Amino acid sequence: MIVRKINSNESTRFNEIFAIAFEQPIENGPAKSENKKIHHLAAFDESNEEMMSTITISDYDINFDDNICKMGGIGGVASLPQYRRQGCIRACFENALQSMYKDGYEFSYLYPFSSNYYRKFGYESCVRKYNVTANLSLLMPQQNLGSFYLADSKNTFLDEVMSIDRVWESSYNMMVRHNKEDYEWLTKSEPAIKQDFTYIYFNENNIAKAYTTFHKEDQSDGRNLICTRFCFIDKDGYNGLMSIFKAFSSDHSFVKFNLPFDSSMQYLMSEWSMGAVNWEVCQAGMVRVINVENVLKKAKYIGTGKAIIKITDKYIKENNDVFTVYFDGGKFTSVERSKVEPDIIIDITTFSALISGVCNFNDAKKWFDGLQIINKDIDFENIFYSKPLLITEAF
């Protein structure tokens, strides 16, 4: 078996495998020559050069503890039926993980079909979200003096939308940092043709506070508004979005959107009773650290201290080491590789979740299998603690 990047003349076959495996139209395939930020790997049969399995790596800059990190978004994981359970995807991941390390990636992220399957490659569940369903007839937004406008290709409100995005992009770990070229969905908006509507809310001082993109779907519970984008910078912005949705209440039953997994978010909704709102917590992907040393250097710590951390990683040999981390005033001062006795041993799966901020260390001790505490005098809560997490990108 050979695993390598595909050639330009192999992109059609790459998309065919995607279409067969996911039972989707071939035009949805990921191998598009115009996108230079997506890298395509495939496993080939050595005997006949048949392409057997595929994987894509998409380049993203993400927020991590107020630093920008390079993240590889994994997608297009597919195998032809006759080649499944033969180690093809495992070979693709072995190649992809090594390639990402050499190419300067610090994190990788994916949306799994099976968390157990991807956990063996070092990924662990990360972002959680609230799926919110609000009854439009019972929606009671607070009265405001603001206004909202529909965006289209002539009036995109691009600067305003980007300014709103910057708030969440700098507030949550794993949020993708977007550039102007990422807003084609807005600059080429055609609401009358595509029936996809983006509204921007401005407060009474004409400051952009929120935006949302939604479309109509006829579902089993009614004719509903389905939000694909939903972003606000404060409570005023949230209430502004609710006033937008209330304007549709005569023709629609529910509005459905996502919120960050944050208990305080639940207090944004004024009416809870009578089935006014339903909150459902859902998983939103898995994270993996690609370069342990770089991530330790960019992480945010609490106070001043030192810890000696041993990492075990089956797929990226450069991460298999003992790292002595010194930090002062919440920032690292040095990270050294050494052969001393560690204070803690952590496998890459558990480390990826903990350093990202999925939970506090004291909770991790109860539920995570992949850590072994050697020195109980070290306060690991200063290194591994709960952090705000969110990702809105799909790949």
Task: Characterize the structure shown.
The chain is of the alpha+beta class and 395 residues long. 22% of the residues lie in helices and 34% in strands. α2 links the parallel β4 and β5. The mean pLDDT is 94.
The number of helical segments is 10
The residue fraction in helices comes out at 10-25%
Unreliable spans are none
Arithmetic mean pLDDT: 94
Strand content: 25-35%
Roughly how many Å apart are the termini? Answer: 27 Å
Instruction: Identify the overall geometry.
Output: globular
Number of strands: 19
CA-based gyration radius:
23 Å
Strand line-up in the sheet with most strands: 1-2-3-4-5-14-6
Structural class, by secondary structure, is alpha+beta
Q: Could you spell the SSE succession in H and E letters? A: EHEEEHEHEEEHHHEEEHEEEHEEEEHHE
Largest sheet: 7 strands, mixed
Outline the secondary-structure elements.
Layout: E1 2-5, H1 11-22, E2 38-44, E3 51-64, E4 67-79, H2 88-102, E5 107-110, H3 115-119, E6 124-125, E7 128-135, E8 147-150, H4 158-169, H5 184-187, H6 191-194, E9 197-202, E10 208-219, E11 222-232, H7 235-246, E12 254-260, E13 277-283, E14 286-289, H8 292-298, E15 305-312, E16 321-328, E17 331-338, E18 344-347, H9 348-356, H10 361-367, E19 371-373
Parallel strand pairs: 4-5, 11-12, 15-18
Antiparallel strand pairs: 1-2, 2-3, 3-4, 5-14, 6-14, 7-12, 7-13, 8-9, 9-10, 10-11, 15-16, 16-17, 18-19
